[in-house]
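Researcher: I've got a protein sequence and the SMILES for zinc ion. Could you write out the 3D structure of the bound complex as structure tokens? I'd like something to compare against our soaking experiments later this week.
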Amino acid sequence: MTIDEFTKIFDKEIDNMKISKSDQYLVDLLAQAKNSIYTIPVIYQGKTITKLNSDLVHQRNISDDNVEKLKRAHICLYRTYEQMSETDDIERLKILAKRCTKIEFIQQELWGYPRDATWHKWFDVPKCKCPKSDNQLRLGTKYYIVNQKCDIHAIGKE
Ligand SMILES: [Zn+2]
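Model: Sure. Here is the predicted complex with zinc ion in place.
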């Protein structure tokens, strides 16, 4: 929903229902519309694969051009995940996992953050056997946990 579309609905609701703007229903409607206004869907092959936080886009003053690049980066990551899902070749999985890392660095740059691998969700790639929630909790720290049975990340397999 665009801001214009929302404004139209909002005005119409007020006209039709003769209710004040403080009415709870409108407060809820506003919250609902705000949710759709303040997320930017990333669409690939007709499907929303993820959403960008547009509050953050405004806060960090991200240009329209960089928003488009961020969308492309997400699609690239999504397609790389698809390719990883389709193979069991360990060498290929490792190469594709490295591509994911590169994409995450690009995303950090586009968001205006420093390049920092400690924030990467390397454990989210398909076929990774490393613990997800334990690593999620350690994001932004130098600590991480590798499953020695993970073909992609286990030491000695690098
Ligand atoms: Zn792993």
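Model: The first helix runs from residue 3 to 17. The longest strand covers residues 47-53.
Researcher: Great, I'll pass this along to the crystallography team.
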